[in-house]
Amino acid sequence: MNMAVARSEFSLPGIRCAGCISKIEDGLADVPGVRAARVNLTAKRVAIEHGEELDTLALKDAISALGFAAEPVLMSGADAANHAESRRLLKALGVAGFAAMNIMLLSVSIWSGADGPTRQLFHWLSALIAMPTVAYAGQPFFRSAWGALRHGRTNMDVPISIGVLLATSLSLFETITGGAHAYFDGAVSLIFFLLAGRFLDSAMRDRARDGAAALLRQTAPGGTIEWPDGSTKWFAASDIAIGMRLLVSAGERFAADGKVETGTSEVDRSLVTGESCAEPITPGMAVIAGSLNMAGPVTVRVTAVGPDTAIAGMARLMEAAGQGRSHYVRLADRAARYYAPAVHTLAALSFVGWMIAGAGWHQALLIAVAVLIITCPCALGLAVPVAQVVASGALMRRGLLVKDGSALERLAEVDRICFDKTGTLTLGRSQLAGSPNLAAEDASIVLALARGSRHPLSKALGAALEAAGTRPAVLQDVHEAPGFGLEGIYKGMRVRLGRPGWVGASGFADEALSCGYGRNGHTAHLFCFADQLRPDAEAAVAQVVCMGLRPVILSGDCREAVLPVAHRLGMTARADMRPEAKLRAVQDYAAEGDRVLVIGDGLNDGPALSAGHVSIAPSSASDVGQNAADIVFLGDSLLPVPIAIRAAQRTMRVVRQNFALAIGYNALAVPLALAGRVTPLIAAIAMSTSSILVVANALRLNRCAR
Amino acid sequence: MTGIALLIPVALLLGLGGLAAFLWSLSDGQFDDLEGAAERILIDGEAKEREPD
């Protein structure tokens, strides 16, 4: 037996309780070859240690047998880096918290009147605790400030770093010379408060990204490859090479571009191109990676992999389109552009002023540093992250995952919305149009047949009948005729569900969106399907128009399919757009000065999503769409879109109030500092109260997503 | 004064002990799945005995 141990991770979107954990962990422990399985409920993942004889597909089947849908997780470098960043911040926060508490205790006894050798001892102890802490826990700020300064810019971390470093070195000097005032407590608690804000911000974004990653269906992370000798093995998409034979069963997505060799079926390209109609494929026709095989199993000869595929071409477009957004400067950093020079000039002026007034250079320097500490933007540094953490938390409870830190800032500025049609305004899946209109006996036969196939139409039909309370009949010998439909025997009679022509029905033009049901000796019955609007789509569009935003539809679908939707929602629309055309349309709007919100789901929306000022995708989107979007919303309703815009606008209002509070506070305290009246005690009180004010104001956002 | 000389090192060591415990539990992955930890208490019964390999 092979003793090598491999590790696989699967995402489990369906788990939510202790029962699921024990079912999966105990169930997997019984699978031969599995060494250990550990479920992570927060990330909705399971990590499995197993012998190398088990491959990904076997494990996936084992989890499915336990009743859970699982998708293999391909760890991306960016995810791991984000988690490492949160962990580093948390460690720094722990160290700063320990130091701040101990130094504060020593400081309290100094403020209460300790003097002479005791004060001297306490100052030295504080210095010993503070200096390693500043060197370790201050790193996130120093790195970011240095990065900005090196590029000739300034950000919020520049005044923070200068304030902390000056306060520490001056306090050290005071300690060595036996002075009365040391500001170690101020410097360390400043780092502690700011790290708390940063950590919450980073942790919230990790949670949103994990949540979004758990939703990813991974547009075919791999597929089953058939070797010339007839054996099959599952390959990850990145390991598939040109010339391999790829087996794709019904309901599976194509993992690579290729040509059909055997089998006939229908493919749904809606995630790739936005077309809502399924297209029939026969041997010799080309298929593209990411499209869904609907009807029967096919074999595909792989013709392109890696950078040559249609998907990789899209990725290059997206990369180019996303570069504009990286130039966005966050509000806090824009504020710092004015704030930092102002406080540094003020401190320099107070130094010069006191020198001229005849105070010694020692006292003048003390006062200048006191000014810097008082104006150190503790509250400013908290104003943005705390408001965003509270708002993102409120939005997450409403099913909106905010993945990007500056997404809410950008969303609040939006004045134009570009909607994709298929999968965004509509549900992107076919649903039974009208009621089935069947006798009870027929309905139960149809349900029994529909359960035998993974074809989207039969699934939709089954769901509709189940919702109407139908129970399946008992059929014998149900089997699927690939490309045609299902057949079975009911009380000695042959019953069929499938293509209208095959069951004997006629008279409906659009074969892809209809299916028939035939029973020996009865007239055939026809079901029609349509891709329907999302619930609340009309209300959502009306609300965004009410907010003064201008919506427009950019669709890759044909005119005939787009016009009815545009008419019903009262929007202007552009149809037949290729991904490049969508991208250009978004860029044109941006060139006219519009801030564009792009809402889309497909691969073909990827470039436009990256180019938009901000972007939103539904959770049903392709992985490319979800990765490119700043915000992902769960569920079928479209109402989360106006909710998110309103919440973003309220968040920015609170952020501005916070800025005003923090600056107003400084305006009160700065004259004290200029007059040389600020002791370490006053500095500590001023800093904590302004931070508490700002945090309390941000907590009001807890209800912003109502 | 002698009291302080004893108490301050004790207080600092206790604090450092707490900090070390926190850093250890963090790197040990005990904060990786907070929701799961809250739910696991509800799992009934003993964990299955693993047969010795």
Produce the secondary structure layout.
The complex is a heterodimer of chains A (706) and B (53).
Chain A: E1 5-11, H1 18-29, E2 34-40, E3 45-51, H2 56-65, E4 71-72, H3 77-111, H4 117-137, H5 139-150, H6 157-177, H7 184-215, E5 222-226, E6 232-236, E7 245-248, E8 257-262, E9 265-268, H8 270-273, E10 279-281, E11 286-287, E12 292-293, E13 298-304, H9 310-322, H10 331-356, H11 361-375, H12 378-397, E14 400-402, H13 407-411, E15 416-419, H14 421-425, E16 426-432, H15 440-450, H16 456-467, E17 476-481, E18 485-490, E19 493-498, H17 500-503, E20 514-519, E21 525-533, H18 537-546, E22 550-554, H19 559-569, E23 572-574, H20 579-591, E24 596-599, H21 606-611, E25 614-618, H22 623-628, E26 631-633, H23 640-674, H24 680-699
Parallel strand pairs in A: 15-22, 15-24, 22-23, 24-25, 25-26
Antiparallel strand pairs in A: 1-3, 1-4, 2-3, 5-6, 5-7, 7-13, 8-11, 8-13, 9-10, 9-12, 14-26, 16-21, 17-18, 18-19, 19-20, 20-21
Chain B: H1 2-27, H2 34-40
Summarize the structure.
By secondary structure, chain A is an alpha+beta fold. Chain A is 51% helix and 18% strand.
Low-confidence stretches of chain A at least 5 residues in length (pLDDT < 50)? none
- Biggest β-sheet of chain B: count, sense, barrel? none
Structural class of chain B: mainly alpha
Largest binding interface between chains: A-B, 24 and 26 residues
CATH homology superfamily name of one domain in chain A? HAD superfamily/HAD-like
Taken from the alpha-carbon principal axes, the silhouette of chain B is elongated
- What fraction, in percent, of the residue positions of chain B are helical? 55-70%
Low-pLDDT stretches of chain B are 49-53
* Beta fraction of chain B: under 5%
Intertermini distance of chain B: 61 Å
In this structure, how is the largest beta sheet of chain A organized? 7 strands, mixed
Taking the alpha carbons of the first and last residues of chain A, their distance comes to 58 Å
- Spatial extent as radius of gyration of chain A: 31 Å
Total helices of chain B: the number is 2
